[in-house]
Amino acid sequence: MIDVGKEEQVYRAAYELYCHNPDWVVFFREILGLEGVVRRNFPTRESLLEFERTETFGKIQHMLGKLREQVVASPGVQEETRVITVRLPKSLHDALKAEAHEYRTSVNRLCISKLLQFIEDELVPADS
What is the pTM of this model? Predict the structure, then answer.
C-alpha cells in the first residue's frame, strides 16, 4: 500500500518546483530522475511502480508535459545530452515520422515524449 505521506511530500516538492517555471530537464532531474524526489521516497521497484499508478504521478507527468511545451533555453541550466541508437523496423520508423508530422514536431521530440510516459511492466519484453 502506498505511503500517502510520502506521496503528498513528492507532490508538494514537484508543485513548488513547477511554480518556479524551471526548464523541463531540471524538473525531470529533480523530481523523476535517478536521484530525484520520487526515487528517494519510493526506492524499491515495487514502491515506484505502485506510485506510478497514482493520480499524483499523473499530475506530475502533466506538469512535465506543460514545461516541455516551453521553448526556453536557460543559460547555465543546460544539461549535457546523450545519444542513443535504437534499431527498429522501417514500418515503425515510418509510423513515427508520420505521427511527428501530425503533431507538427520532430521525431526526436515525439520519441522523448513517448519515453517519458509510464509503461506497464508486462508490456516490456525481457531480453532473451
Answer: 0.78
Concatenate the DSSP letters of all residues of 1-39 into one string: ---HHHHHHHHHHHHHHHHT---HHHHIIIIISTTSHHH
Rounded CA-CA distance 122/11 in Å is 27
- The string of pLDDT tens digits covering residues 25-38 is 999 999 999 999 99
Cell numbers linked to 20 = 518556479
Angle (CA) 93-97-103 rounded to 5° is 140
CA dist., res. 47 & res. 102, Å (int)? 36
